[in-house]
Amino acid sequence: MRKYFRSTAEYFADYFWTGEGIRSLLEIFPILGVMNSKDQLIGLLEYALRDAYRRSLKALDLGKELGSGELVLQGQEQIERHLMIVFSDTVRSQEEAHFYVSKSFLEDYMMKPLYPTVQKYDAKPIFIHIMLNAKDTENTLTLKNLNRMVAKFQQMQSMFKISLWIADIRSANPFFYHEEHFVLSIHQFFSQFSYGVIITDKTSLLRFNYFNSQYFKQRLDLEYTACDSENKTIVDTVITELAGCQAIFSFANIGFLVTQEDLDKMKGSETTKALVVHMMEQLMHRRIPMVVSLQAMDQFAQQRHVVVPLLGRLNFDGEEIVRYLAQFQGVDTEESTTVHLVDYEAPMYAVLILENYLLLYLAPSDEQPEMLILLPKKVCPHLLLDLDLLLQNESVVLHSALWQDYLKALPSIKEN
Q1: How far apart are the first and last CA of the chain?
Q2: Would you state the pLDDT for residue 115?
Q3: Full domain range(s) for residue 312
């Protein structure tokens, strides 16, 4: 059978590798990784054929020789191929599905590009639940892997609904659980070699599902959108924590300087608008550092809009751009934030360091809603250190004189 699978994979790869065949390939794999060579495509197709054959035998009750409900995946490449098949099968089925993964599994096996190839996905939602381990002090979030996670969230949210959870457990192995279908547990002999064990027998799945339901209880992301902004629990949590904000890091053109006059032009309830103005004024009148990336400044100048949390996009014309940015003239006073500029590339999001949490705000796009995440500080000590180093070592204070020079150059923007 091995020669048959290989020769069949080579035959189809010759067709799929051409311009005419790519559309058929994307119908089979609506979630696909980057294929840098035909050999990689052959490997994926060969594995897919073997997997389809194995499942067919099992469905016909002819697969007793396949073992007692376990399958071993050898090496990272085979694990990633299996994920492409599982996700693609799920998308094609158009049925609701839930995947539970440990943060370590996400970082090791899901950070490589897995591109949704479906332009518009209207079927039932596919949920990915990610667990952060409060007791795993050696593998906590860093700024680098947070950037990768945010980029992955923003890339996949057109098709997947992503949530974050925290548990006080020690998970011995990275895991991936497809609810009611299988558990994939990762084991490692050496740093260069890992293998995955897929468990499918119903007794083991029942036990795993029991423990899984015990651990996935404390959710970190807040489902807070313009349509449900009267949710008092979430409002109270955010407002209470904002009062103790210690620093702001903004890598997106977010409307921290919006006024009631600005928001009067936007759709939304007056209650939400008043809440946003209150929160922004509360932040901007604290004597704390606000680190803004040059990337965010460039986005604002080019796109002429800011994202207002809970309300959406606020567009400006040329004159309004100057008026909005002129509000930064309050820097260097004792009643405002101290603005710092930093040349740092990151996905479109912001981090607010609060008294007990880090508040992550992922900006919305045409394909995905905004996302708010409250991370307890105990799960991200390395991230806090990285942000402090970014502030202390890589940023420069935006003094009033420098800002005035920038504003004088804005008429060229205004006339475009």
Answers
A1: 65
A2: 60
A3: 222-415
